[in-house]
Amino acid sequence: MQQSKPDWIQQSFHQLQKYQDLAAKIRHKYRPRRRFERWRDSQDGQAWKQQQFNRIQGICPDCGHQLPAIAHFQIDHIKPLKTHPDLATDLSNLQLLCGPCNQRKACQIKPPKK
Ligand SMILES: [Zn+2]
Prior knowledge:
Keywords: Endonuclease, Hydrolase, Nuclease
InterPro entries: HNH, HNH_nuc
Oligomer: single chain
CATH class: Mainly Alpha
Strand content: 5-15%
Helix content: 40-55%
Distance between the termini: 43 Å
Protein name: HNH endonuclease
Structural class: mainly alpha
CATH topology: DNA Binding (I), subunit A
Largest sheet: 2 strands, antiparallel
GO molecular function, one term: zinc ion binding
Number of helices: 3
Domain HNH nuclease: 49-103
Bound molecules: zinc ion
């Protein structure tokens, strides 16, 4: 009666499967942000940011403060990455906000409940 695999092998397979599922979840979660960061750091992304900075003349659309340098601005996802990963690099979903406004907005977004 040696037809089924011993328990320890079954358990190892089960454990491995769990780690593979976890790895897939982590990959899925971080892929859109990576894609966005690659774009943001590319020439295209930098050019877009400069263009937006010129367009808003250094004035944060949220708080209305005028900030002298482009470094004070961050690229915000109007519809958050968490809920709209497909819009990670969709220009119509991106805007510049000053650092504090972007942080404040990020804090207000609650992660989706399971
Ligand atoms: Zn602001």
